[in-house]
Each structure stands twice: as C-alpha cells, then as structure tokens.
Design goal:
By secondary structure, this protein is an alpha/beta fold. It has helices at residues 18-32, 81-92, 104-113, 147-157, 193-202, 218-231, 244-247, 265-271, 285-289, 302-314, 316-330, 337-363, and strands at 2-10, 36-42, 57-60, 65-68, 75-78, 96-99, 118-122, 140-144, 162-163, 181-185, 208-211, 234-237, 250-255, 277-280, 293-296. It has 2 domains: 2-167 and 336-363, Rossmann fold, CATH 3.40.50; 171-331, 3-Layer(aba) Sandwich (Rossmann fold).
C-alpha cells in the first residue's frame, strides 16, 4: 500500500503546526508498519527547506515539483499542489490519498477524478475554509480528530466522519519535567494570548514561558516582546522542532483558546510526561485534557482562570493528582499508536476494497 498525504499548505520545516506534526508522526508510524508514504505540500520559495541537506534534494519534473527526503520519507513541494496532482499520481501511483488542511476539498476532487480513494482528515473547525462544497462521494470519506469536531461536521453537513484522534509518538515528547514554569504555545489572539498575559501579571512570582509561533508576524512579535518585558515574569522562546526542550521545564501547559480547537495537540504531547493542562472548555480540548487538568470557560473572566492556576500551582497534592491523571490519560487504549494504526489501516483497506468492488461491477 502507498499512502500520499496532501495539503495546500507548506510542510515541515517550512511550516510548523499541529497538523504538520501529526502528519509527520503518522508518516513515521505508517513507515514503521511497512506502508510506503509520501507528502504533497505547498512550497514557500522565500523560506529555505534545509540548507544542510542539499544532497538529499533534487528538482523533479522540469522544476514544477521539488522533492526532498529530509523528513525520512519523500515530500513533494509545489507552488500549486492541485496542479501537481495528475503528474504525481501518474508517477507515484498512490493507493490512497489523505487530504489535510489548507482548502482540502480543492485537492480531494483532483484525486477522486483520477480514481484515487480519498480521505479528508479534518483538523480544524473552520468549515468556511474547506475550499469547496462538502459532498457525499463514494470515493471520499471524512475523518475528524475529536468527538466535538465529529458532531459539528455532522450537524453542518449531514455526514458523520470517522473519529480518529491525532497520533502522537510519545518518544518524541516525553521528558522528566523540572516543573519550573507555565508554558503557553502559539501566542495568537485566538489562542488566548490576552488571558495568558493577564495571568502572568496577576501572578508575578510564577515564571511563564511563551513559545512563539513560526507564523508570528514580525509586528506581532515586537509587540509581544514589549508586553513580555513589561510583565517581568514572561520569557519568550523561539519556535523549535524539538518540543522536549520546552516540556523539560514545564510544570503546567496553558491552553486558553478562544476558538473551538479540533483537539489540542500540545496537551497530548505534554501529558506524555505527566504535565497537566489548564485549558479552555471549548472544542476538542475537554477530550484531549480528560481528567489530566482543569478546564475553564474562556468567557468566565480572569478571576476564574487565576483561581484554577492557583489551585494547580500552589497545592502540591492537587498538582500531583492532576499530573498522575494526565499521564494515565495519555496511556488510555484509544490513544495508543497500535489502536490508531488499526483504525487507519482498516479505513484504508475498506476504501480500497470499495473502489475495487465498483471496478469489478463496471468491468462485469
């Protein structure tokens, strides 16, 4: 079997986010299971891929697609991924396509038109950015990361996606935490940066670390740095591909999102090391946090957030209880690699069988 993941967005290391990290973990795990994998992504010509790996990169197909193998599997990068689909399908002959992020329906139609069974793996709740009309197509299945996202999609379109949680390879994130600080990743307004800033000002004795996003605009970065200096207890960290260096000092992972998160990947990464979460009660976060943290309504007011933070930071017994439950939550059977792989491979096989069955009927 050959699985091609596809997105209109750029991919690692040009673009780093939860979707890209989840795709990378999926590719590594599928590869370990003997499945041939690859990724089709957008290309940002002004942002280098990896200058230290020039020997592993080569221009393909007259310069329309750039292939590199720096991630441990082939990544095909194109300025217009949708236009690259026909040539890539002809050359790589994927058994199945998995479309994620970045107007996925614009790519799904390209693959199904060429007879490639396609899964649209939903990783956010922004249904106005799907890139086309949602249709019930015999060669298309929809998957979603959380129960909340599954429900929202079903209510919006009358199609119930298969629920498959994001895959997290724990060895890439597990550490022995020194429990030094509160960590907030991706300081954007929609991620709750104002709540995080207010908490830091209200608890000046607690060290906070804000991990900047790769996509943070330079003006936003300058403003954030000024506000961090004004607070006095906020350290800004540059984005990193090795989140273990972040979690090594983390006592609490803060996720005060204002939007309906599809999951909350940083929560699952942190819980692999028994780091509990203080998070919003929106979207998929209640499912990703479980009993390994405290949930707060983002509209409840800063006093509610401060009270929850004090409960976690100031009460050692309560902290240890939440940390133990977070570690236990990370070990639940439905979140294990073997379970997720079984779900995914069964879905792949089902779709391929359905496609072959229709071919047989047409051929007969």
């Amino acid at each position: 079997m050959k699985v091609l993941f596809a997105t209109n967005s750029a991919y690692l290391p040009q673009h780093v986010g939860g979707s890209e990290s989840s795709t990378h973990d999926l590719c590594l795990t599928l590869r370990d299971c003997g499945v041939e994998v690859g990724v089709l992504s957008g290309l940002l010509p002004w942002r280098p891929i990896e200058a230290k790996y020039p020997a592993q990169m080569s221009l393909r197909w007259g310069g329309c697609i750039l292939r590199d193998d720096t991630q441990g599997y082939p990544v095909f990068r194109a300025r217009e991924p949708a236009l690259a689909v026909p040539e890539l399908v002809r050359d790589q002959r994927p058994t199945i396509a998995v479309i994620q992020a970045g107007r996925p329906l614009t790519l799904a139609g390209r693959f199904t038109a060429l007879g490639v069974p396609t899964i649209v793996y939903l990783r956010d709740a922004f249904f106005d950015k799907l890139g086309g009309a949602v249709r019930d197509h015999p060669d298309v299945r929809y998957a979603a990361t959380s129960r909340d996202l599954t429900r929202r999609f079903a209510e919006a379109f009358g199609i119930v996606p298969v629920r498959i949680p994001p895959l997290v390879r724990p060895e890439r994130y597990r550490v022995e935490s020194l429990r030094k600080n509160v960590t907030f990743v991706c300081p954007f307004p929609m991620k709750g940066v104002e709540i995080a800033l207010q908490l830091a000002r209200r608890r000046p004795a607690i060290p906070f670390v804000f991990v900047e996003s790769w996509q943070l605009h330079p003006v936003q970065r300058l403003l954030l740095r000024w506000r961090a200096r004004s607070a006095g207890n906020i350290t800004l960290r540059s984005p990193t591909l090795d989140m273990r260096s972040v979690y090594r000092d983390t006592k609490i992972i803060l996720v005060p999102s204002l939007c309906f998160e599809a999951w909350g990947r940083v929560v699952s990464e942190a819980q692999a090391s028994g780091i509990p979460a203080l998070a919003s009660n929106r979207g998929g976060l209640p499912e990703s946090v479980g009993e390994g943290g405290i949930l707060v309504d983002p509209d409840a007011g800063i006093e509610a957030w401060q009270s929850a933070l004090s409960r976690m930071w100031d009460d050692p017994a309560e902290y240890e209880r939440l940390a133990a439950r977070g570690r236990q939550h990370a070990l639940r059977s439905e979140f294990q690699l073997s379970t997720i792989m079984s779900q995914l491979l069964a879905l792949f096989s089902e779709m391929v069988a359905r496609r072959e069955g229709r071919r047989g009927v047409c051929g007969g």
